Amino acid sequence: MSRSARTVFLALVLSLSAVAAPAYAAPPPTTHRDPGNGPERNEIAATDQPMSVARAAAGENVAGDHSGYPRKTKLRVYPENTTDKSIKLGLAPYHAIAPKLNALQARSDRISVEIAGQSGLGRDLYLVTITAPESPSETRRQDAWRSLIENDPARAARDPFLRHGYKAPVWINNNIHGNEWEGTDGALRVIEKLATSNDRKTAELLKRNRFYFNVTANPDGRVAGTRQTSQGFDPNRDFVTASQPEVRAMRGIAIGKQPLMMLDEHGYVANTLIEPTTPPHGQNYDFDLYIKHGYANGLGMEKAVQALGRPETAKPEIPFRDYEPGSWDGWAPIYTAQYAMYHGAVSFTIEIPMRVNNADYETQPVAELQRRAVINTEVVEATIGSTLNYVDRNRGELIANQIEMFRRGTAGEAQREIPDGFVPGFGPEDRYRTEFPRAYVIPAGADQRSAVAASRLVDHLVANDVRVRQADRAFSLAGRRYPAGSYVVDMHQPKRGLANVMLEQGSDISAKVPVMYDISGWSHRLLWGASVDIVKQGRLDIRAHDVVAASPTGGVDAAPGRDLALKLVDGKDVSAANDLLNRGLALGRTDDGTVVVPASARQAAAEVADRYGVRFTEASGPATPLTRKTIAAAVGPDELKALRDMGFDVRPVSAAVLNAGFDWSRVDLLFVSSGLRYTDLNPAAKDALRAFLARGGVVTRGATGARFNTDVGLLEARPVAGWEDGNGVVSVVNGTGPVGGGALPDSFVYGPFWFTDLGSSVSVEQRYASGNPLVAGHWRTRDDGTGGPLQAAGQAAVVSGTSGLGGRAVLFGTEPLFRDHPKGLYSQVARAIYWAAAK
């Protein structure tokens, strides 16, 4: 079925001329694609960020009575910051927001402000609630109804008091990308109008609804004028992992407020972009319950934007109606809007029209920037206003819609077949479905690859409002016997879609759409390091209790007076080992990478076992000394975070840092994946680097790392670039060497590489599996027949060896630290570091 004939692709030719791979024409990306945290991060190395902001006045963040509404919170006020990037645009600087909200709370009994969390640099995240005043008993009734909708949806559907009395919750999220400012300012306009208007319509609106505004989701980025958080992460790619505090705060809003509808206000797409998206649509959604109201409210927002009378907003774009499949997809749960759908929301990403960031911020006259910002703020206000009115008009249907989503999940019903024309334009290309298993089991005991990984996975599921139970006694399922203490995720639960999107392997959608907006594959089951079994059908006759937090997993299992062994099968194991090394303890390392702790350090081992949840067994066999490792890292922000989370001493570097003079004397290893080209170094920096490489180790990743290996002449290995947008979960075959031995059978790629023409001194640590190694994701072959998964099959994905300069090197063609997600791969990187830095 064809969509409107609107071309949204650009021709783009990329080459990796410095890498020994064929030149090729890349698949055309959408014109709307902004830089994320994918292949683009190969170019700019992470740096150390400032760790704090100026403190607010002490004692000013004292919350009042939270038993009803309004909830008066005297917000702490931050010092004026004249460098706030929003000032130039005529928009609200962060330091002005708290005084404005304090003043509105003093004027109105309809507004409540709470602190949803803090940013990475400690700035408050303001959650504003606008509703008619409620007594404590009225608030308790609303809370009970919200709980009933999720926990007993069949009963909720029969409750006439709920149907007439439940206040429809709506969530407006703003400024998640820090340099997409105007969502905050448009929201503040709406907040002020709703809090202070005295007309009857506003009063009635607030009696029937609750409106929640996350005023600025990324205040650090707002002040600095950056898309990313202070840690360099794109928060709108983080929801499946929630590595950032700002994202965890938004997750709390989605779960705690359970919105019927939500908007995520972004920028910038000419004319204004209003979801719903193009296909592919997430296969775990009850999509019929989304698209009916998603499309209708999208059309309503379009009319509201057009009604502004601005030529710049005359033709809003609705991807579902106007774009080709894949150019603005709804597949990945990494985005705010797509994640919120799993919590019962009909949700939208809104892209306001007039660009004021990036190069425009620097080159456009201030008057023009402020003119654009005014238009953008009007668009935000129009989309919010239209949505609030839509919810009010369709309140009963939207409540029933959310109840039905949770009811289907609880009952374990199959997804509905959606007929062509269900809404105008719906056809076969929009139809994505899955079959939910009966349960997932995370076994305890000997069948569990990593108890600490299992514990982490369980805690993550619970934090996302996925229900997990722990068996009180041994049980059998699907012909397998499981010990007491095993965890069961019963897929007859309200948010089964979210449970499944995290635990399934996903799908290979390479043949279904020509290009994807961002990643297309992820899997907590395959990539987080825990053993997870699938139970397709059957009864769950298990005596179990609900899990609030996973059981402790740490301990020391060796007899007193014996040396201890710690196998590095998880990043937490590495954290424990580095913790002991940082205490100055003398550790050892066996040939298979196991860390040996002397019996004299038993008390310290017990402390880190409790802290990180790891287990020590009794050591046997010889070990060589293992010392603390210091890493010079030209890496992306996600890799920097992962390395530091594992306890490594990491010193960020780049070509500029090395050219300015860098002290290599205390560095053991260089990690290269971003922001460092050998050809960009001056002669002195090259000499210093080569002197280091004669004694120190190197680990590289991706295009930048492959180019570095070639330019410096480390290992005899020809890197071949796969399709640069290729991404997803891949099946691998591990070797028995120091890096591949014991690694997971699955890995992750984004812009995959492999290595051919290997020299005699180069060992293959890991290969892509034969056949088609792509398990889930989007990885296509170029038009010239190169770069696809079939070409990667059987090829070396990770190699190691001793370089011609004298040091050891490991080259990764995979993405083992990508966006803080594939946590089960971290130990493989640590083993590479320990081995390469051992000389």
From TrEMBL:
Residues 90-381 form the Peptidase M14 domain. Residues 31-43 have a biased composition (Basic and acidic residues). Residues 24-43 are annotated as: Disordered. It comes from the Bacteria. InterPro entries: Peptidase_M14. Pfam families: Peptidase_M14. PROSITE patterns: PEPTIDASE_M14 (PS52035). The active site is at E351 (proton donor/acceptor). Residues 1-25 form the signal peptide. Coiled coil: none annotated. Its cofactor is Zn(2+). Belongs to the peptidase M14 family. This is Peptidase M14 domain-containing protein. It comes from Amycolatopsis roodepoortensis.
